[in-house]
Design goal:
The protein is mainly α. The protein has 2 domains: 445 residues, MFS general substrate transporter like domains (Growth Hormone, Chain: A); 80 residues, no CATH class. Helix content is 60%, strand content 3%. The strands form 4 sheets. A two-stranded antiparallel sheet has the order 1-2. Helix 4 packs across helix 8. It is elongated and about 85 Å long. The relative contact order is 0.14. Keywords: Membrane, Transmembrane, Transmembrane helix, Transport. GO terms for molecular function: transmembrane transporter activity. Pfam families: PTR2. It is found in: Membrane.
């Protein structure tokens, strides 16, 4: 949109003060470093806790493998359920910017309860940071909250108070991440004008580098932070994520002057309920053959704040009845009750959401595969040979190969695969979102096949050496797990990034955070089989063991 020689965005975006924004001064790639930096630091903080959580629960709180896997799975599932809260607040009331700001603050304070539980390893000298800020107070755990160490082979269970403080911090993180997850990727994509073909292509590339930044943070966590937690103490290991979360908040606010903002459009859940109520109330009415008779505002803009008008589609015609103007409404000229009469745009919003559900369901399968990385893959590694000479490899640190795989495949996909595919398909992004997700699902099958072959070999060696009931690792190198981690990373690049693109591009303007949250919900549902499996008292036993994964 040009006015007086100045080009404004055409997608309705505004600046921090609610005024139309100029393309040359805002958004685009100039705003992305702040958002990518925010996401990278936030993911470092998250994975700094999540990656090694099974190890913490088994070695410090003295839980069994099954109980630890169940607790981690439940927590991770919650982290993918709470985005619905943040999404509704962002789309309806606060907007994505203020939702990220509010929940980031909650996120920032969450690792502190765990620092007070653990303190710092007394052998680590960290009395100063930068020569000025003393952390001696945080270095001392609160009496009675630090888990009791094992005495010989006796490992006392954690007390209710220790569990309470630890899981309080853990589930506050789940709440904090819920406000951030569905908003950051959408807020980053908001920086590119949908009405500009050049910026639209850049937006597709943004999703690739957004996921790249996630995995840079994850790489540091799965290697450096895992080593810190295993060797320098859990207090420091939980304190570093808090520091990086503070850096994430600072990075996010630094870009405020050049961000593009989309106005919140009111509750999408309320609008969907209004369509259902109105269509049910008018179920006996006929939908006119002339679709121009269906109710829509006469203005250029939609009646929904921050949303462009949507064209009528012929699917799900039963919902069109919500936009039929009845004789009574026509005579009284009272068109103000949204529970009796909805606009075409409002009806089409619900239609789009319904059409997304079959694609959404396919994401559950991949999420179930991805959930194995932080539970069963780690437990599998714990009963394998983790030594190289005198050096011991933390089993959770092998997830860094998944991250390395993502870091390798993102630039290869963006710079090599997409240009080649574009020549054959003629598509701007090389593949459609659905084609990209399908390729990722196929690679995930190869991933689990590799993991199954490793487990078959591990159990075979255990039987041959008579180690089935012995509390020792099987002499099979943990590095045999590398292929399954590497394949999982490749699958992520296709599936997860494809989901990010699909649920942003195909969603209505005023429901983008909600649709992003729905895509994350597949991760929660994908965690459920793992949760039920680890909680099942009828799991197959082998020679009296509690679970097949026990050594």
């Amino acid at each position: 949109m040009n006015e007086g020689g100045r080009e404004y965005t055409g997608d309705g975006s505004v600046d921090f003060h609610g005024k139309p924004v100029l393309k040359q001064n805002t958004g685009n790639w100039r705003a992305c470093p702040f958002i990518l930096g925010t996401e990278g630091c936030e993911r470092l903080a998250y994975y700094g806790i999540a990656t090694n959580l099974v190890t913490y629960l088994t070695t410090k709180l003295h839980e069994g493998n099954v109980s630890a896997a169940r607790n981690v799975t439940t927590w991770q599932g919650t982290c993918y359920l709470t985005p619905l809260i943040g999404a509704v607040l962002a789309d309806a009331y606060w907007g994505r910017y203020w939702t990220i700001a509010a929940f980031s603050t909650i996120y920032f304070i969450c690792p502190l309860p765990k620092r007070y539980v653990e303190g710092l390893n007394p052998e680590i000298s960290l009395s100063k940071i930068g020569g000025n800020v003393y952390i001696d107070t945080l270095s001392r755990p609160v009496p009675g909250l630090r888990p009791t160490e094992c005495v010989g082979s006796v490992c006392p269970s954690a007390t209710p108070a220790q569990y309470g403080v630890f899981f309080l911090g853990l589930y506050l993180i789940a709440l904090g991440t819920g406000g951030i997850k569905p908003c950051v990727s959408s807020f980053g994509a908001d920086q590119f004008d949908d009405t500009d073909s050049r910026e639209r292509v850049k937006k597709g590339s943004f999703f690739n580098w957004f996921y790249f930044s996630i995995n840079i943070g994850a790489l540091i966590s799965s290697s450096f932070l895992v080593w810190i937690q295993d060797n320098a103490g859990w207090g420091l290991g939980f304190g570093i994520p808090a520091i990086f979360m503070g850096i994430a908040i600072a990075s996010f606010f630094s870009g405020t002057p050049i961000y593009r903002f989309q106005r919140p459009g009111g509750s999408p859940i309320t609008r969907m309920c209004q369509v259902l109520a109105a269509s049910f109330h008018k179920r006996s009415l006929e939908v006119p053959k002339d679709i121009t008779l269906l109710y829509e505002t006469q203005d250029k803009n939609s009646a929904i704040e921050g949303s462009r008008k949507l064209e009528h589609t012929n699917e799900l015609k039963c919902l069109d009845k919500a936009a039929v103007v009845s004789d009574a409404e026509s005579k009284s000229e009272d068109l103000s009750n949204p529970w009796r009469l909805c606009t075409v745009t409002q009806v089409e919003e619900l239609k789009i959401l319904i059409r997304m559900f079959p694609i959404w369901a396919t994401g559950i399968v991949f999420s179930a595969v991805y959930a194995q990385m932080s539970t069963m893959f780690v437990e599998q590694g714990m009963v394998m040979d983790t030594t190289i000479g005198s050096f011991t490899i933390p089993p959770a640190s092998l997830s860094s190969f998944d991250v390395i795989s993502v870091i390798f495949w993102v630039p290869v996909y963006d710079r090599v695969i997409v240009p080649i595919a574009r020549k054959f398909t003629g598509k701007e992004r090389g593949f459609s979102e659905l084609q990209r997700m399908g390729i990722g699902l196929f690679i995930s099958v190869l991933c689990m096949s590799a993991a199954a072959l490793v487990e078959i070999k591990r159990l075979q060696i255990a039987r041959e050496l008579g180690l089935v009931d012995e509390d020792v690792a099987v002499p099979l190198s943990i590095f045999w797990q590398i292929p399954q981690y590497f394949l999982l990373g490749a699958a992520e690049v296709f599936t997860f990034i494809g989901q990010l693109e699909f649920f942003y591009d195909q969603s209505p303007d005023a429901m983008r955070s909600l649709c992003s949250a729905l895509s994350l919900l597949t991760n929660f549902i994908g965690e459920l089989p793992e949760l039920f499996d680890s909680d099942n008292s009828n799991l197959p036993h082998y020679k009296g063991r509690e679970h097949w994964m026990d050594p």
